[in-house]
Amino acid sequence: MKILIVNTYDVVGGAARAAYRLHKALQSIGITSQMLVQTKISDDPTVLGPENKLEKYINLKRPGLDAFPLRFYKHKKDSLFSPSWLPFSTIIDKINASDADIVHLHWIANGMISIKDISRIKKPIVWSLHDMWAFTGGCHYDACCGKYATHCNMCPLLGATKKTDLSYQVFEKKIKYLTKIQSLTIVGLSRWISECAGKSPLFMGREILNLPNPLDTQVFRPIKKDLSRDLLNLPFNKNLVLFGASNAIRDPRKGFTKLSAAMHSVKSTDAELLLFGSGPLLNYSNFDYPIHHLGDMPGDLSLRILYSAADVMVMPSIQENLANTIMESLACGTPVVAFDIGGNRDMIDHQKNGYLAEPYSPVSLAKGIDWVLNYTLPQELSHNARQKVIENFDSRKVAEQYLGLYKKIIEKK
Predict the structure, then answer these.
(1) Is pLDDT of 245 > 80?
(2) Would 219 be classed as within a structural domain?
């Protein structure tokens, strides 16, 4: 069996890391898996990227070119929106020329594949939904708009006032091309996004399964807290509340303002905020609680040390699918507090390995932080957190589930 994993990037970004982890997990159980990307960062020979300098240069320009239609929306909000109109990609030709039995699409935005070109794939397709883009008019998260369930138009994220705006045009294009694909299986990484996809007319009648991302629980496992804090030069006698994500401060969906408000209501003494991830820095003098900013944390070992150093991880996102950071934190034995939305409840068992706060209440978020920090048996929380991941998201178990899906599709073919 040969599988071709397709993603815009190989190891940069949450979706890329999840797709690459699946790629390696499949290989670990004997499946021949290759990964095809628009931009390659790793030196993994089983990841196929641009074949020459010209192709690499063109691929670097494609994200900006694909976003060109957004320039006409002066009131667009700072949220990711992908028109995916850009033609002349060599990706589809590479897919069709491969000897793969199944093409497994993941996150394919930033000009990698146009909507029309998806319908040109001549092999059975599995499509993992890392966000909502596949069934919306272009947004990756709809900010609870819900128009994807009927037909996108007058997109609030674009600040559009015309019914036939860009979101309408993108949705029409998806109706035209995606609905004609013969062999397409949709995988929702969380129960929430699986339910959302089932409401969209784009996937009406399609098979929609719920299968998660895999995580190597031997890579992500606890390290002694004192050692972790020593390695990161963090205080030993403080309650460290961890928060981080790509562009976490700037992206309103990540909910930093909710966490900031919650920190003012935390009753636990000596609580300090531990930030990580890429994005602009803040003027920390505006906050009345200590903040440690560690910047981007490259590599799984750095993340493992970071999660182990924290007392609690907080995920205050307004919308979330199946966050890598939650799964990674739990695997390292660090409980997580998050709003009870999206795919968070797939990983967090309320008051067993973390806390599900009332959406979108900073007071409830603070209550959850205090609950974790004051829990009388922290080792029990830590054990429960790791066991949740081992039992439900371990790489080998998840890879076996995908193998079962692939076999079913091939037999049907």
Answers:
(1) no
(2) no
DSSP assignment of 39-98:
E--S--TTEE--SSHHHHHHHHHHHHHHTGGGGG-TT--SS-B--------SHHHHHHHS
- Domain match, 121 and 18 both: yes
**Proportion of the chain in helix, strand, coil states, percent, rounded to 5:** 40, 15, 45
Q: Give Cα 48 to chain centroid, integer Å.
A: 22
Q: State the average pLDDT over residues 120-129.
A: 97
Question: Which DSSP symbol is given to 215?
Answer: B
Q: How far is CA 302 from the centre of its chain?
A: 19
For residues 53 and 25, membership in a common domain is answered with yes
Does residue 131 have a pLDDT over 90? Answer: yes
Same domain, 236 and 296: yes
CA distances from 381 to 224, 333, 347, 361, 373 (A): 15, 8, 13, 23, 11
Per the CB < 8 A criterion, the answer to whether 99 and 44 are in contact is no
User: Of 222, 223, 226, nearest to 234 (Cα)?
Assistant: 226
Q: CA dist 285 to 81, 381, 394, Å? A: 33, 33, 41
pLDDT tens digits, 158-199: 999 999 999 999 999 999 999 999 999 999 999 999 999 999
Q: Is 275 inside any structural domain? A: yes
Element containing residue 404 per DSSP (H, E): helix 395-412
Q: Where are the alpha helices (DSSP H) in 98-187?
A: 115-118, 166-178
Phi, psi of 38 (to 5 degrees): -80, -40
pLDDT > 90 in the chain, percent: 88
> Do 80 and 110 form a contact (C-beta atoms < 8 A)?
no
In CATH, what number is assigned to the domain containing residue 46?
3.40.50.2000
d(CA 382, CA 307): 11
Phi, psi dihedral angles at 150 (to 5 degrees) = -120, -75
The pair of structure tokens assigned to 247 is: 């562009």
Residue type at position 341: I
Instruction: Indicate if the pLDDT at residue 282 is higher than 70.
Output: no
